[in-house]
Amino acid sequence: MSALIDVRNLSVSYHNAGRVKEAVRDLSFSLQAGETLAIVGESGSGKTTLASALLGLLPASAQISAGSLAVDGNDISHASERARRQLRGRFIGLVPQDPMVSLNPTLSIGKQIGESLILAHGGRRYPALDADVLELLAQVGLDNPELRARQYPHELSGGMRQRVLIAIALAGNPRVIIADEPTSALDVTVQRRILDHLEQLVQARGISLIIITHDLGVAADRADRVLVMKDGELVEQGIAREVLSAPTQPYTRDLLAAAPAFGNGQQPLPLPPRPARPLLSLHGVGKQYSPGGQPFQALKGLSLDLYPGQTLAIVGESGSGKSTSLRIALGLEPPSEGRVHFDGQDVTGLTWQQFRPLRQRIQLVQQNPFASLNPRFTLYQSVVEPLLSFGLRDGAELHQAARQLMEQVQLPASFLDRLPRELSGGQRQRVAIARALALKPDLVLLDEPVSALDVSVQAQILELLRNLQAELGVAYVLVSHDLAVVQSLAHEVVVLRQGQVVEQGPASEVMHRPAHAYTRELLDAIPGHRLSA
């Protein structure tokens, strides 16, 4: 049986201002009909370049410098744009990573799926178009297709938007689908449902699937075979469960050791000694909103105590109340009911100005470091801005403080003159942490601090956070949907569902002996969980 995709000794290089950089080197692999292949590796490994080459979407600065790339028996490595366009959508479909970027915010869902169907039918509108749109929405598991077709992307949840992208990929009835990090931004339970449904559709239609991911757990759970890439080269390949349970190459072993989903013998952290008084307390906190005049209870009856030097994790799916809890703890919005205490002081009704002195003691590290840092500021300006805002340093003291902060997060002081775009994702997150530490806070709120990072970089940031806590005695509130990350950092865990606490206690109890069915569902949904068990 001939392969649907056959890559032989492929090399792809980028040419920019007289410089040449090889992104893929001497790569060979094949994809058979009905097969699911995972391509894994860190940022810069060449995964996205390879996907772009398969889709005929390499930028003008890139060229295939060696080897061949055969799709359906035809070498397209140097084919015309017209020939490549005939393959896109019809033979190879794409499910991109970020639905909010990939979907047009000004068009309804139905129109966007309809556009793909029209292209698949030679650019002509046809009588059954509307019915086919509804059929695709139903096939990808969206309820009430008639309503969804009229809605816009911002009216859907992340999981729903991802299903729309799958529907668009299926519109051309392709034989191969490339899924580029299709679930990296989704909660683990939503992630599992999306991957389950994609797997069912692939099997029902006889489609081959290429999953491009940095998540080894997804590869272990979903792929028949896996390719491990590093710096543009193929490091290891084989049957997924064999490669990921008994890797032969050091790099693959390093990736597995860094992946929190695989456990690696990591035990939940024991509770440190507790001082007499908690640093942060929430007592019966609730929050109600009234969108469109309809009351909505986002949070109800949340009570927790966080002590100095301790990490408390708040976990749950989107809509569970995690972000609402964080905003209330930050003093960014008041609770509708209950009380909030910080270091013994009732801060529930404080105005913005009254709360401001406390902001020196409470800082935030956001999920996306590129979005949280001013792109026009050098790293020096970003790191010292909190000190300037509170008038705590000036002149030579600012430069000394900036160097000390960079040292704390293990970045060279020479980086201070750089802009955020000149750094990797992990380096930017280290700068965001340095900025949060500038005011020497007692409490740092961590909002999904590693979800956008590769597994090896995740491990480095988590180790940095643990070391900083041991050194500085800072307390953390960690908001996350990833229980594998929670296990590596948290002392206590609060599990939220639909705004209410379903389970609460030491991480050692919650993670190893969950009492509630919902917590067990979250744990079972961790990609790679079954392989590591």
Describe this structure in words.
The structure is a single chain. The protein is of the alpha/beta class. It is 37% helix and 25% strand. The protein has a 6-stranded mixed β-sheet, sandwiched between helices. A 6-stranded mixed β-sheet has the order 16-17-18-13-19-20, with helices on both faces. Strand 9 and strand 10 form a beta hairpin. Helix 4 (109-120) packs parallel to helix 7 (158-170) and helix 15 runs parallel beside helix 17. The protein is globular and about 70 Å long.
As residue ranges, the low-confidence spans are none
Strand order in the sheet with the most strands: 6-7-8-3-9-10
Number of helical stretches of at least 4 residues: 22
* Principal-axis shape: globular
- The counted number of beta strands is 20
Reported by name, the CATH topology of the domain at 296-361 and 441-533 is Rossmann fold
User: What is the end-to-end distance?
Assistant: 36 Å
The largest sheet, given as strand count, sense and whether it forms a barrel, is: 6 strands, mixed
Helix-strand makeup class: alpha/beta
Q: Give the proportion of residues in helices.
A: 25-40%
CATH class of the domain at 296-361 and 441-533: Alpha Beta
Mean pLDDT: 87
CATH architecture classification of the domain at 296-361 and 441-533:
3-Layer(aba) Sandwich
Describe, in short, the structure shown.
The chain is of the alpha/beta class and 533 residues long. The protein is built from 22 helices and 20 strands.
Task: Write a concise keyword list for the protein shown above.
alpha/beta; Rossmann fold; six-stranded mixed β-sheet; 25% strand; 20 strands; 533 residues
